[in-house]
Amino acid sequence: MSALEKTADAAPSIADAPAGVSDHLVAAGAFSEVERNAVYRAIETRRDVRDQFRPDPLPDDLVRRLLEAAHSAPSVGFMQPWNFILIRQGETRERVWQAFHQANEEACAMFEGDRRAQYQRLKLEGIRKAPLSICITCDTRRGGPVVLGRTHNPDTDVYSTVCAVQNLWLAARAEGVGVGWVSIFHEDAIKTILGIPEHVKIVAWLCIGYVDELYDMPELAVKGWRERLPLDKLVFEEGWQDCEDM
Ligand SMILES: Cc1cc2c(cc1C)N(C[C@H](O)[C@H](O)[C@H](O)COP(=O)(O)O)c1[nH]c(=O)[nH]c(=O)c1N2
């Protein structure tokens, strides 16, 4: 078939692929029931941890497994825009806590009356308590100026990095390790502390450590801040429907 004869219908097939590509196709059946249950258990029992961290350090091989899980995440155009900055020093975590504290005061002031008092009672970070923090960043220049899949949706580099965060979070749950995501800070304050360049975005500050107990539902629900929404109200067929007052 000449190039002119090729139409949009003539999509590339595996037969057109370079030699050796099909050798990489492996069976993709469902997991066993035990394996499936383990995956769903990690998803359902994963929690955001603020206060339950034990102080004992995490072994290097365990931290490596968490990072491998994060690095296995999908990414736009296989961009892999993430970096993982490991912070164990108390002095650095103290500076980051100060940045959190300042931003948290600002956040608190945005609520009124009882809601403000309720906010003040919430613990929203474990920066000083958790023995390890990992700052996960997104390098917006990784892979050059044109990245497959990102041209019309530039935020997909950040979405990819969030996928890495979630992989790490789920792997940590399976390892008996708690993770708490902190986002209450001015990004520039943390960038200055860690020397992160302008074109690199901070996606997550994760507090990480062993935990003996976890809440059986989101702590914000346990403490009356907000309930889990009913899934059926969030699922639409074929188009948008109004779902106000959520
Ligand atoms: C992008 C992003 C940012 C934050 C969070 C999450 C995510 C996804 N969460 C955790 C959040 O409050 C928590 O996930 C929900 O309350 C649901 O609880 P579980 O994660 O199911 O325990 C969070 N929690 C907190 O105490 N301080 C924070 O600054 C943040 N920031």
From TrEMBL:
PANTHER family per UniProt:
IODOTYROSINE DEIODINASE 1, NADPH NITROREDUCTASE
Tell me how this protein assembles.
Homooctamer.
Entry EC no(s): 1.13.11.79
InterPro entries reported in the protein's UniProt record: BluB (IPR012825), Nitroreductase (IPR029479), Nitroreductase-like (IPR000415), Nitroreductase/BluB (IPR050627)
Catalyses which reaction(s): FMNH2 + O2 = dialurate + 5,6-dimethylbenzimidazole + D-erythrose 4-phosphate + H(+)
What is the originating organism of this protein? Rhizobium hainanense
* Organism lineage: Bacteria, Pseudomonadati, Pseudomonadota, Alphaproteobacteria, Hyphomicrobiales
Which GO terms of type biological process are on file? cobalamin biosynthetic process
Family assignment? Belongs to the BluB family.
> What's the top EC group for this one?
oxidoreductase
Q: Name one GO molecular function term.
A: nucleotide binding
Asked if Nucleotide-binding is a keyword of the record, the answer is yes
Q: What is this protein called?
A: 5,6-dimethylbenzimidazole synthase
Ranges where the Nitroreductase domain occurs: 43-210
**Key words, A-Z:** Cobalamin biosynthesis, Flavoprotein, FMN, NAD, NADP, Nucleotide-binding, Oxidoreductase
**NCBIfam families given for it?**
BluB
